[in-house]
Amino acid sequence: MDRITLQRIESAHPLIREELKKDYLYCNNKLLPNGVRLRFSHVYRSIEEQNKLYNKRPKVTNAKGGQSIHNYGLAFDIVILLDKDNNGTFETASWNQDKYWFRVVDYFKSKGWSWGGDWESFKDNPHFQKTFNNTWRTLKEKIDSGDFTEDNNVKYPNI
What we know:
two-stranded antiparallel sheet; single chain
């Protein structure tokens, strides 16, 4: 398995970590063929990291620090890795929306994740999130009011 993704899953909100790991493993073991693997390119993202991303050009996000569900550990972004040389290295990253991409999309949507590719105004095709009926504002309010759990030196809102 991809140790990078498994480490990133450990940065997810404690409420979703085990589910996310189970679903990630299912995708790689059951949905994708040999030579194709799923990686999470981002899970938790700090406010500082989010602001750097927000200031990138060309524009890749509308969310400033604190306005992204990543900042609360409740989102992840995907990339498909390909082993083009058939040597087990999976060195080629692909964001092509092909049949493998949509297998992953359909699977996570079936598990209750919202997909950024379904958004109307700013499509974010690698992005998935579960907000548990919260907005970034209500999640931020929980953190600001002290209604959070701290884990891995990160404050996660209580849900």
